Amino acid sequence: MAGVEDRPILFASVKKLAQWAQSGSLWPAQFGLACCAIEMMATAASRFDLSRFGAEVMRASPRQADVMIVAGRVSQKMAPIVRELYDQMPEPKWVIAMGACASVGGVFNNYAIVQGVDRVVPVDVYVPGCPPTPEGLLEAVMQLQKKIRMGGRPMAPAMPSPEEVAHA
């Protein structure tokens, strides 16, 4: 019979254990607004296999998701809806801005497009490119997992309300 010293023992705080579990089971909300959504869908396919990172189940309801992947440009009309969906997500929640359009408005520097989704919701990870690659989204998921394991996001900055976004 093996003694106590021969048994593997893991020492960790409950907080660290919860962060590890959260980082391995991200549930993204599908929110494809433009061509970047095709790349987001490709990431879930067998070639790139997002399920390796515990994020394979794209949720259609914000109440079942903890990660919002904003893939594509956000119009002024869509901004209040993005904010409302973000507010409906349970805490803790994270946001990935996928593509140049979601990050900074892309080539659409006009009155109709929000020049970066970070003006509407706090963004945790940015995926560059036009179009962004599936590998870029996989890297963003890994960066987000690392961020969660390290303690997550500090208190989110005060963001405008949906009414303020609608009138901007």
Account of the protein in words:
There is one protein chain. This protein is an alpha/beta fold and 168 residues long. It has one domain: Rossmann fold, CATH 3.40.50. It has helices at 14-23, 36-44, 79-88, 100-104, 134-149, 162-166; strands at residues 28-32, 67-71, 94-98, 125-127. The longest helix is centred in the C-terminal third of the chain and has 16 residues, at 134-149. The radius of gyration is 18 Å and the shape is globular.
Chain-wise SSE layout:
Layout: H1 14-23, E1 28-32, H2 36-44, E2 67-71, H3 79-88, E3 94-98, H4 100-104, E4 125-127, H5 134-149, H6 162-166
Parallel strand pairs: 1-2, 2-3, 3-4
Helix pairs in contact: 1-5, 2-5
Q: Which keywords apply here?
A:
Rossmann fold; globular; single chain; alpha/beta; 11% strand; 168 residues; four-stranded parallel sheet; 4 strands; 6 helices
